[in-house]
Protein 1
Amino acid sequence: MKLVIDTDPGVDDAMAITFAALHPDIELLGLTTVFGNVTAAQGTRNALYLAERLGISVPVAEGANIPRALPPFKPSVHVHGPEGLGDLPAPEPTGKAIGESAAQFLSRIARENPGEIVLCPVGPMTNVAAAIDLDPDFIKNIKSIVFMGGTLDRHGNVSPFAEANTWHDPHALDVVLQSGADITMVGLDVTMSLILKAADFSQMAKLNPRHGGFLQDISHFYLEFYKTVGEAGCGFHDPMTIVAALHPEMFEAESTPLAVKLDGEEIGRTYRTSGRAPVRVCLNLDVERVKATFMDALATN
Ligand code: BDR
Ligand code: CA
């Protein structure tokens, strides 16, 4: 699978990138960065660092630092730590981002690989909407979009209604939902059905001291945050999205036209609508197989 991840790394983003880098059936063609958990500049730095420590040579293109229409947000320091990687100090990668913006890179890589690119946005959708603005052929050129965000039947995680990625840029998501792309939503309905605890990160470290050990190192801060909101562990948000892109058969999805609230108390809420092309919304999963798929990638690399 030819994959591009649009990301705001981020502890669970780092898990997603690690899985993508290690899985033998994934060809990771690029990382694009966006504000969210961190600033876009921090995200670019973290993405470069993660790629370097994973030993992969992959272009990193920096994207939007502010939402499409809403005022800017501050990074989610209380969730992902001051630099986005839990307690870790700011990493110092040696490489640099490429000269293209995220939207330019997305447009080009899709054009160069027509019908082949699976795009996994695991942060706010700002860059993807920008690529749609930039390139009228972008949606035609990509294979599919499998995104982390939203919730249909579960409460939100930043408001009673909204999940963080949709909260951060509902206007961009609404552009994407009306684009006619082949879209799968991996939202809190499924990502909060797989809760990782400290013991799971210990297992990662045991299976793969270098890469699993790093994920354990960055997990402590994240797990502490989840405790403060009454959860027994952290959600498996972004890594699950990559697993869903690779193994849709491990998920049960509802096909429905989808929209997102653009203002008011429910801003960022994803909801069933009509009059649009349907998207697949994952509502159930084989928890053990999804988790095992992630752990196996660590174990064999
Ligand atoms: C999503 O928000 C971010 O904090 C995570 O990285 C994930 O993409 C979960 O709501
Ligand atoms: Ca993310």
Protein 2
Amino acid sequence: MIKIKSPQEIRRMQEAGAIAELARRACGELIQPGITTKELDQAAYRVITGFGAKPSFLGYGGFPGSICCSVNDEVIHGIPGKRKIKEGDIVKIDVGAVYMGYHGDCAATYAAGVISENTQKLIQVTRQSFYEGIKYAREGYRISDISRAVEAYTVRNGFYQVRDYVGHGVGSALHEDPEVPNFLAPGRAGHGPRLAAGMTIAIEPMVNVGTFEVKCLSDGWTVKTADGSLSAHYENTVLITKDEPIILTVGKDGRHA
Ligand code: MG
């Protein structure tokens, strides 16, 4: 069942979203060669708890970090630890905050030092594919309209959307209905849930250079590209309204990654 949020629930999600964005921003500003993924995790923890919120991911299904920190061919769910970021790495920060019982969830990809032109393109296409999708995050459209737009833009630019992991509804639970795939499965066009004002969804394209296929490592969490190619991730929590969609993972200054 897809939950419609009340104005009070939406206000709490806005608070949670602002905190998640500030944690994302703090990590983004710290990313440079030499920093460890654990140090990034600690920075996010300080920001989130400093606002009286809790990291959504910490302890979720036993996850040991406050953020997911995934480097290079790691797609999502990287566990923060001793790994040192190197020059030319790309680092995905995925962070959630829960405030007064409601979650905000967002992610972005950052470069450490100089990266190739194609890797820059990967990061830009991933981010833009979110914006192609959000054009359809409006009352009356279907989830599958978002999926189709995200995928079409990505394919046109020569990259691949991951299929085994998808975006999701978000609210009092980190993961709620509906699923928000980044690809259009056969027969799904014109089917599936319609969007309505008050729904809140996390749209989160995960884009690979070489293949949509991924594998999960023996740590039970880290997801990598099957072929070892690079991957980028971008996500915001979005409120459906009767008019323009509203991104909830924005700072008080109106900015977001
Ligand atoms: Mg998410």
